[in-house]
Amino acid sequence: MDRATFQFIAGVDEVGRGPLAGPVVAAAVILDPNKPIEGLADSKKLSESKRQQLAVEIKENAMAWSIARADIKEIDEINILQASLLAMKRAVETLSKSPDLALIDGNKLPDLPMAMEAIIKGDSKEACISAASIIAKVDRDEEMIAMDAIYPGYGFAKHKGYPTKQHREAIQTLGITPIHRRSYAPVQKLLF
Hints:
It contains seven helices and five strands. By secondary structure, it is of the alpha/beta class. A five-stranded mixed sheet has the order 3-2-1-4-5. Helix 1 (about 50-60) crosses helix 4. The radius of gyration is 17 Å and the shape is globular. The mean pLDDT is about 95.
């Protein structure tokens, strides 16, 4: 695919497929070629402070960016893969500019009416996917930190809903919250 023929290229990524709690969050970013952003990389390889700094830069300098999600109910109803694709679709559809090419992190494509390319480990290969990965992760982390105040004792601010030892023990002791994914095995076990 000759990318030179495309005017607006969006990078698309999601975060939060592995956690036992919270939404899956996706972002789409169309970078401005005239405003390059230094230091873009896979969000998982950056420190929290670096991600936060880059998220501000991305939002200030990108041609367009959007963040969307699929909530816990949707994850439980349609499964995490479909919920991730739905969040990506929503992120692209809510961009202020319509891309003519979407570069999607991973090996599956959402249902979108434009040229698309799935790129495995795209968040470490394509700057626009890295940018999407960063703003999605910062947004989801902030949401999980806010959930920590609403549901104290689970450690959401620390593990962001991922199945750490602390989180699994908290579920055993305190039970499940409304933000836990009931279709996930460690949570499901406590429902019966």
